[in-house]
Amino acid sequence: MAPVPPPQLSARKSPRQARATATLEAIFEATIQVLLTDGPTRLTTTRVSARAGVSVGTMYQYYPHKQALLYAVTERYLNTVAETVERTCLQNHGAPLAQMSDTLVKAYWDAKTMQRNATRALYLVALEVNTSDLAEACMQRIEAATAAMFDSAPDAKFADLALVNLTFLTVLFGTVRSLFTRKMTEESERRVGDELSVMCLRYLEASKIA
């Protein structure tokens, strides 16, 4: 179940027509751009509306202030990441463990790196608004999806699946996050991604019941 935002962070309304949805897309993209160029402390709804090409009045129809906007952008981003992992896990139920591990690492990696600007920008949002409930909800969805997938592996059983799953995800999340808190070339990122796949699979293989 998606977390219910605090009243002060709730959107005033949801888009009901294609034009309104396109407007929100422009607002969300503009928010990412302003975060990256100006930082979270200098982000204002006025700057975002100007970058998005919409009026401040239109902005206020949806978000009363920047904290509500940042909360909404974070929610949308994390939902996309969780949906990507959930879909990948469902598609790999019953697959060999090696395929599960490699596909999962790649799916999470791609979900983060293909939204590179959003990933970098939203690590800054916590400076302005508490989004811990969104992060926790995303984590719980991913943990449930990956545990169910690993439990269906025909070639692997684990004495403590919950612990193995948690450790696997902690390594995956931590490694990917580190790439966005330091400057690395795309080639270095790619090589780290390849090593991460190897490391995660070796851990799973070592954790199997003999």
TrEMBL record:
Show the Pfam families listed in the entry.
Answer: TetR_C_15 (PF17918), TetR_N (PF00440)
Per the record, DNA-binding region residues lie at 44-63
Q: Which UniProt keywords apply?
A: DNA-binding, Membrane, Transcription, Transcription regulation, Transmembrane, Transmembrane helix
- Keyword Membrane, does the record have it? yes
Keyword Cell cycle listed? The answer is no
Q: Which part of the chain is the HTH tetR-type domain?
A: 21-81
GO MF term list:
DNA-binding transcription factor activity; transcription cis-regulatory region binding
Indicate the transmembrane segments per the record.
Answer: 161-180
Q: Report what the protein is called.
A: Transcriptional regulator, TetR family
Which source organism does the UniProt entry give? Answer: Consotaella salsifontis
Upper classification of the source organism reads: Bacteria, Pseudomonadati, Pseudomonadota, Alphaproteobacteria, Hyphomicrobiales
